[in-house]
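Write out this protein's structure.
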Amino acid sequence: MKDGHLLTLAMETSCDETAAAVLRDGRTALSNVVSSQIDVHRAFGGVVPEIASRCHLERINAVADRALADAGIGFGDVDLIGVTQGPGLVGALLIGLATAKAYALALGKPIVGVHHIKAHICAAYIEHASLAPPFLALVVSGGHTDLVRVSGYNAYTVLGRTRDDAAGEAFDKAARALGLPYPGGPAIDDAAQNGDARAVAFKRALLEKDSLDFSFSGVKTGVLNYLNTERQAGRAVKVADVAASFRESVVEVLVAKTLRAAEMHGETQVVMAGGVAANSRLRAAMDEACRAKGLRLYRPSPALCTDNAAMVGTAAYFKYAEEGADDLDLDAFPNLPL
């Protein structure tokens, strides 16, 4: 502890970002270092798990050193080690866990394993000092699309989730079909800036009445069918229009389901979390819709929406405060449930 503050060194290696951060008292990020592997995986059109693991192994110690240096502290000042234990790629998770456990053992400091999706939700605490449970969280990423009621700092209830493709997965697949580069989400968002969102009438899958689940496989298939039809007919495809129309179809469902969940469960605060929460159209549409309904919206900066370690440090802090430390036999769980 330094100057009466608890300092957490956190690490995140669940997928293709090698990240480390230092948090003061759980809500103030003193550093947040991310080493991206996007350029490495772009040649393959997606994340290659074995390559991701090797990159984490090569980079994790240097990234942790940089996080400490940026925060102006040394290993001796660290009070708590936080690390993602799942869900994610098992090989990638194990690199972060092994490193975190080595630091905890060498320093004689407590270690806390963190759920990756809970960490995404906790990212909102860093930039919004007034935010406290209860609230509703929309988690949208490459592997998850969930509506979660957060009734306490460590109390999460899933209200709805995707039945097939996650929103981010659908963005990646649509981008690939359109010939846009990896990663697909930002590529779709960029292309859509110059497109007409009304050009192509893709269906919105709202499912059964009052259902808070999602389904995006249909609209993804709709993109593929539209492209095949247009190309077989010899008509030129306007990529920007398709991107904008597809993006709008996903955003409308995400916003509608979120507002419905808030109404059904009496929530007045809404948090956006996950990589897709950085999407410009989703951020604007959710802001407009929440204002119209009198809901308070909390949106982390785009850098805190994508995978990072600051969010892991915040989640570790709150878990440690209520539940204490984990044992050093902490393991990785690639399908860890929320």
